[in-house]
């Protein structure tokens, strides 16, 4: 799955500064449990499930999503999607920067309908289109945006923004006001785990141990493990290995370097351990993966 190779904090620009939105159609790899691996981005996202059933991990929430459901993922929120291995899971994602809808001045639209959602004081519910009514209308609007984006006829940007505003209207009308429940993660905790993930992303080619991370972020090793896993569903060591495997898979796809060299370039100092770890996450050897990607 192409998306599994995106960096945790996505560097890909979704659209451009003049029209900051794009759409991704994804048929995920059934051999993997992680269909969208742990990441975040500055953009908002409507995730429209077209096939299968999965679990959306959104910060400290676990949300069951199935075909016909639409989930809204606010900007800068850590999220991943898992699905039982062997089961299909497909979706399209409408990803757009808040600037696409933001007012140029702090007017009523900005204050009442945009800022509360961007601050996450207002939460959009999971949209179940089988219920009909406003939920099915949102699906119709997002489907129309999907078609407009693919066709790119004259003025499609105007129509997309209009339809997106309509979808936003329906979501706002049926939104939930945020209540801070006991046991949820604070903004500080979310910021901390993002910093840990960013540190791993930058230093994955180097030796990075649990002790290194604990010292870097002034935490005990035990607390770091429990805290990190509660947010990402992986231990720090599992995440380091998963990220290194993802980066090595990208090199296997795009370069002719020897597998041993790629292992070293992505932080593995033992080829046998690299092979075992790669098989654990990709369900095949590095050689098999390279042949499958370059038939």
Q: Fraction of residues in helices?
A: 40-55%
Radius of gyration of CA atoms, rounded to a whole number: 20 Å
**Element order: H for helix, E for strand:** EEEEEEEHEEHHEHHHHHHH
Portion in beta strands: 15-25%
Given as residue ranges, the uncertain stretches (5+ residues, pLDDT < 50) are 1-9, 180-184
Mean pLDDT: 86
* Count of distinct strands: 10
Number of helices: 10
Structural class: alpha+beta
Q: What is the rounded distance between the termini?
A: 16 Å
Give an overview of the whole structure.
This protein is an alpha+beta fold and 295 residues long. Helix content is 44%, strand content 19%. Strands 1, 2, 3, 4, 5, 6, 7 and 9 form an 8-stranded antiparallel β-sheet that branches. The chain starts with 20 loop residues before the first strand and ends with a helix. Residues 1-9 and 180-184 have low confidence and may be disordered.
Summed up:
This protein is of the alpha+beta class and 295 residues long.
Secondary structure blueprint with pairings:
Elements: E1 21-27, E2 34-39, E3 44-58, E4 61-66, E5 69-73, E6 79-82, E7 89-96, H1 108-118, E8 122-123, E9 127-128, H2 133-151, H3 156-173, E10 176-177, H4 187-203, H5 210-216, H6 221-232, H7 236-254, H8 259-265, H9 271-282, H10 286-293
Antiparallel strand pairs: 1-7, 2-6, 3-4, 3-5, 3-6, 3-7, 5-9, 8-10
Helix pairs in contact: 2-3
List keywords for this structure.
44% helix; globular; 10 strands; disordered N terminus; alpha+beta
């Amino acid at each position: 799955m192409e998306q599994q190779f995106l960096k945790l904090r996505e560097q890909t620009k979704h659209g451009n500064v003049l029209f900051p939105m794009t759409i991704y159609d994804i048929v995920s790899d059934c051999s993997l449990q992680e269909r969208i691996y742990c990441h975040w981005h500055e953009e908002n996202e409507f995730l429209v499930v077209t096939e299968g059933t999965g679990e959306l991990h959104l910060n400290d929430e676990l949300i069951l999503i199935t075909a016909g459901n639409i989930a809204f993922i606010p900007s800068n929120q850590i999220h991943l999607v898992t699905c039982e291995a062997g089961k299909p899971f497909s979706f399209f994602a409408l990803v757009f920067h808040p600037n696409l809808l933001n007012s140029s001045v702090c007017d009523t639209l900005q204050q009442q309908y945009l800022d509360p959602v961007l601050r996450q004081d207002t939460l959009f519910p999971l949209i179940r289109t089988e219920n009909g009514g406003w939920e099915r209308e949102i699906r119709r609007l997002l489907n129309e945006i999907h078609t407009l984006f693919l066709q790119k006829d004259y003025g499609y940007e105007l129509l997309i923004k209009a339809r997106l505003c309509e979808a936003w209207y329906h979501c706002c009308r049926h939104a939930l006001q945020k209540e801070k429940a006991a046991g949820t993660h604070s903004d500080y905790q979310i910021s901390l785990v993002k910093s840990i993930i960013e540190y791993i992303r930058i230093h994955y080619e180097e030796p990075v141990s649990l002790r290194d991370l604990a010292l870097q972020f002034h935490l005990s090793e035990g607390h770091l493990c429990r805290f990190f896993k509660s947010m990402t569903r992986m231990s720090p060591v599992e995440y380091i290995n998963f990220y290194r495997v993802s980066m090595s898979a990208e090199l296997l796809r795009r370069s002719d370097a020897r597998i041993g060299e790629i292992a070293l370039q992505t932080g593995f100092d033992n080829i046998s351990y690299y092979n075992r770890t790669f098989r654990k996450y990709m369900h095949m050897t590095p050689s098999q993966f390279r042949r499958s990607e370059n038939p």
